[in-house]
Amino acid sequence: MNSIRLDKRDLILSKGSAVMTRRGYHGTGVLEIVQAAGIPKGSFYHYFASKEDFALQALAFIYRPRLQRYAQALSDPSLSPRARILGYYRELLAHFARQDTPQYHCFIGSLSFEMSEMLPAIGAEVAAIQQASVDILRGCLEQAQAAGELPADEDCGNLATFVSDAWQGVLARLKVRHSLQPLEAFVTRLERLLQA
Hints:
Elements: H1 2-23, H2 30-37, H3 41-47, H4 51-73, H5 81-97, H6 107-115, H7 120-146, H8 156-177, H9 181-193
Helix pairs in contact: 1-2, 1-4, 1-6, 4-7, 5-7, 5-9, 6-7, 7-8, 8-9
């Protein structure tokens, strides 16, 4: 019974977050979420107290696995720390290059722009996810520094924040321009940044 409950909750989170990513928080009602999931409207309130609760749970549902994959990629012992970072972002570039028209719809970006100030709980969750990503990258940068791949006086925390913020900017430009150019420029600049 518990697995059925989790499966249905996950289905609602998956389908509903896709709708909310495209239409925004305000443009998405509970009806659109349940229609996307193919469930009765009453089922929504069995799993979520409100639309805000849904958005908070969807952030965790989407970004916990992504953060785990990021942490795994940046801790691969078969590669040097610098190679891990560059390999991760080169793979993302390759992923977008395989698309007919490069595009990106970012759930966290949509929510942060639209709702962070209006609903502080969403703002706090977005900030926590972003900080977790920065912390993962900072740890790998510190390993790169210890291995002599970065200057000894590099501020790894500041560099991690800069790279993370720059990546969010790249994703915003990708959403607007549907061009690989911002991603290619980001990877080229990252290669230069990560030099001893």
